[in-house]
Structure formats: C-alpha cells, structure tokens
Amino acid sequence: FTCIGNTKEDIISKMRHYRSIGIENILAMRGDLPKGWQGTQGDFSNADGLINFINKKFPEFCIAAACYPEKHILAPSFSADIAHLRTKQDNGAEFLVSQLCHDVNAYTTFVDRIRKAGIDLPVVLGIMPVLDKDAIIRMTLSNGCSIPDELATIIGKYGDNPDDFKKAGIEYTINQIFRFISAGIVGLHIYTLNKYEDVETIITSSGIRKGV
To answer: Number of folded domains in the chain?
Structure first.
C-alpha cells in the first residue's frame, strides 16, 4: 500500500475494506512517483507517516516496511537511509521486506549495520528471478542494485539467446536462494513479474515449497 494519491480518508476506507476481507499484513511504502508528478499528491509524503497513521488507526494490522540492502537509490548516504529505516521501526513497522538483492555479502553487511543501529525487525529478503536479460538489467540498475560477477557472466554469455539465458538464470536463481538461506534469511519475497510458471519451477526445485 502506497502514499501515492491517497488521502487519510482514502486510507481509512481501504484499511477497513482490507480488514473486512481478512487481510492481516500491510506493506506500507511511499511508492514510485508517476512520471511528471511532484510529490505523492496524497496526505503523506513518505512511508514514515503512512506507517504511523495505519498503526494508530488500525493497530490490529501487522505492518511491513521496505528496506534497501544497498541503500535507497535516492538516499544521500547509507547512514541516512538506515536512520530513515529506524524511524519506520519507531513508527510501528513490525518486519521489513527488502528491495531486490543479488549480492549475499551486501545483504549480510546490511543486516549487520541495521542491527548495530538498533533495528531489530526481521528482514524478508527480496529476490528477482533471472529470467529475462532486459528486465533484470533494467530493474537492477533502476533500483541502484549491484550485479555480481557470476550474474554478469550469464548476461554476457547468454544475453543474445533468450532460452539459454532463462535456463542459466533459473539455475543461478536457485543457487542464490540456497546461498541466502545459508546466510540466515528469515523469509523470502520473490518479485515474480507475473512469471508464475517459472517461479513455480524455482521454488519447487529449491525445496522452498513442495508444489504451489
């Protein structure tokens, strides 16, 4: 749920609806501004205020906040980004869902830094399956995320052959999931981009879930 275009009245109405249909968890974010927009055109300019508002009006919801293992692309510094994340915790967030991350070392370093900053929320790792060259490059670079050497090699070797790229990308994604599990993640959020069948292959092959 984002700040984009939402007034307080809108938020209250939508939260009541979500509650009525049994939703218990809300991921509260600012959201990406549509092209040409100046600000969110809603009552909250960032996730901090949105989280605080939902927490006070609807304390029964479990609120998640976004986090960025390689810092938010617009943050002036890593320290500033972590301070902002601490504010989300203080305003009522109960767990974190990360931006897509390919780099295990970046993830573990991030978790270490936020723990030292007093942020003790569980971090659900966001991962984007490597299925399409253009999509993975676009999403990775637009969010300020790094491309590890192994992934760069796959892009260079198979980038001109979509079928071979997908095959190598699925294998890479499965191996990355194992690496992140070994690094101690408490949960996994997969950015599917509506590639349901490929994601089903990944999660069953990795043993995360025996069938969907």
So the answer is: 1
Specify the amino acid at residue 107.
Answer: Y
Confidence at residue 212, expressed as pLDDT on a 0 to 100 scale: 42
Kindly state whether residue 47 falls inside one of the protein's structural domains.
no
Q: Provide the Cα torsion 130, 139, 86, 97; round to 10°.
A: -40
Q: What is the domain-level CATH number for residue 119?
A: 3.20.20.220
Checking if the pLDDT of 124 tops 70, the result is yes
Could you give the CA distance from residue 127 to residue 113 in angstroms, rounded to a whole number? 20
Q: State pTM to two decimals.
A: 0.90
pLDDT tens for residues 61-89? 999 999 999 999 999 999 999 999 999 99
C-alpha 58/C-alpha 1 separation (Å) is 14
Question: C-alpha distances in angstroms, 74 versus 57, 68, 164?
Answer: 29, 11, 35
Q: Can you tell me the mean pLDDT for 86-98?
A: 97
Domain span at residue 164 reads 61-205
Helix segments in the chain, DSSP class H: 8-20, 47-57, 78-90, 104-116, 133-142, 149-158, 162-182, 196-205
